[in-house]
Give the backbone structure.
Amino acid sequence: QVQLVESGGGLVQTGGSLRLSCVASGRTFSDYAMGWFRQAPGKEREFVAAITWNAGRLYYADSVKGRFTISRRNAWGTVTVYLQMNSLKPEDTAVYYCAAYGGTSYYTDATWYDHWGQGTQVTVSS
């Protein structure tokens, strides 16, 4: 059974930090790129960050460059992907989703991702 389970969301003040985690299991996710997306109320889901299967390449949305860092740990049977979020702003408030992508080209496009988690809420107060 494929599962992507996010954790680490919460309420934080402007300028604070949070670390999101996502544990992916049920497939050989070590072969997959992993990404983080977010969706704020009334807005479309948007790309945040992605990491290739071997962590050789990282991708970030312009809005989070220099503040967020994506990383991953591949282990037998599971993959854990992290999103370290620093210098948080109220506009970072959203539900954050972890996703897995089996391809090698469209890392920033949510429509290409094969598997999704349920999301974790991040709220940044001003």
About this structure: The mean pLDDT is 96. The chain is about 0% helix and 50% strand.
